[in-house]
Amino acid sequence: MKIGQLLISVVYLLLISCDPTTKSALTNQEIQQQKEADLSEDSLLNVVQRQTINYFWENAEPHSGMARERTHLDGDYPQNDKNVVTSGGSGFGIMALIVGIERGFIQRADAIDRMIVILNFLETADTFHGAFPHWWYGESGKTKAFSQKDDGGDLVETAFLMQGLITARQYFNGEDEKELEVRERINKLWKAVQWNWYTKEEEILYWHWSPTYGWDMNFAVRGYNECLIMYLLAASSPTYPIDPAVYHQGWARNGEITSDIEFLGFRTILDHYADNNSPVGPLFWSHYSYLGLDPRGLKDRYGDYWMLNVNHAKIHHAHCVQNPNDFKGYGGNCWGLTSSYSIQGYSGHQPDRDIGVISPTAALSSFPYTPEESMNFLKFLYLEADTLVGSYGPYDAFSLEDQWYQPRYLAIDQGPIPVMIENYRTGLLWKLFTSAPEVKAGLDRLGFSYE
């Protein structure tokens, strides 16, 4: 029996053993049929969620409680960075821990204690006008430069972390001392981010600021890409909000963000070219901003965000089915391109920049958009190719074409998997994040309609 099949069987037997009435009422044949027909898919979802959540629970950097940027089970770490922690990936991880509580994998009290460890770290770690850097050293809270000039505030990664913190604030709503403390301390961090300072008094947000190099990176963030959440949170801030013109003139490029381009039979809705020089970007664009922001029924003057993301995922699926490069293994059950590790090192993957590398996070984090296609990939991975799965879920990337994979993980790829699967199953994180009154106010300020 393959490892994936064994995992499903174990989960199923645990479920059945909890209900002796059900157990005695069914024959062995009926139990087997029920397992295969009714519970195999649900059990698979439980297995992959539990494994990927453990990346952030069991595998957290011990001093900070934060998510390690990478985990290499082969022990080969670049620059000895095993304990380097990531801001954005930790935001995803906080949301994953909430899923773990709801699924019964983690005790709520233990998760609150972990949140206090994380908040202890964030309150003393380096910040830059309230914004977090991309990376810190987990033991000290000092910034580790992401690149030479990227050694200060990273507003996009800050938004990803703040998305997770706001979701946690909404979730830990009890009146006991610790939950009150968690909410209070999250509010202080949230109110400290000087979003409008990162405009340089222009009608656009800038990604980076360095205490050493100032604004030298000069990365003005224009849509469309993964950064919608940054503009929404900047508009939602109760202390340092941006003017709506920053969104409309900067992000939306005075309306030029809209697109009539059709690719592989699907409208792209918004213009991917400006940031990507391509008709369609990597699939993480349809995940990162939407871990908390509910795209169902979400619209503004530029587009329908549910259709945007569904079409984005379907384009990637169609590309792998058509397989114009004739890569081994591609098809309806093996698909999904995004930025990840590859045989050439870390690189971006998308339909017109395809080197034969499949990144499991791409299809698995698209469950809300393509449930059937994503389930087919999940079954392929766990039932046919389970050598590509390790202790923290699917390895970051693989190439059947090159017979390549490594037992390695990245926080920003593992985190969206359990979160988006839970949004598919229950909408939990979408409900929590969008319940925040500041988020609703920000959506209203920017002219969004939502259900």
Task: Give an overview in words.
The model is unreliable at 8-24 (pLDDT under 50). The strands form six sheets. The chain has a three-stranded antiparallel β-sheet with strand order 2-3-4. Strands 1-13 form a two-stranded antiparallel sheet. A two-stranded antiparallel ribbon has the order 5-6. The chain has 451 residues and is mostly helical. The protein has 17 helices and 13 strands. A hairpin with a 2-residue loop joins strand 7 and strand 8 (266-267). The chain is globular, with a radius of gyration of 21 Å.
Name its key features.
451 residues, mainly alpha, two-stranded antiparallel sheet
How are the SSEs placed, and which strands pair?
Layout: H1 3-17, H2 20-25, H3 28-57, E1 70-72, E2 84-86, H4 87-102, H5 108-124, E3 135-137, E4 143-144, E5 153-154, H6 155-171, H7 177-192, E6 208-209, H8 228-236, H9 244-251, E7 262-263, E8 266-267, H10 273-276, H11 305-322, H12 360-364, H13 371-384, E9 389-390, E10 393-394, E11 398-399, E12 404-405, E13 408-410, H14 411-414, H15 416-425, H16 428-434, H17 437-446
Antiparallel strand pairs: 1-13, 2-3, 3-4, 5-6, 7-8, 9-10, 11-12
Helix pairs in contact: 1-3, 3-4, 3-15, 4-6, 4-15, 5-7, 6-7, 6-8, 6-16, 8-9, 8-17
Q: Major sheet: size, sense and barrel closure?
A: 3 strands, antiparallel
- Nearest-integer average pLDDT: 93
**Helix count, per DSSP?**
17
What is the total tally of β strands?
Answer: 13
* Low-pLDDT regions: 8-24
Sheet-strand content, in percent, reads 5-15%
**Distance from first to last alpha carbon:** 45 Å
How much is the radius of gyration in Å?
Answer: 21 Å
- The helix/strand class is mainly alpha
User: Secondary-structure element order, as H and E?
Assistant: HHHEEHHEEEHHEHHEEHHHHEEEEEHHHH
Instruction: Identify the strand order in the major beta sheet.
Output: 2-3-4
Broad shape: globular
The helicity comes to 40-55%
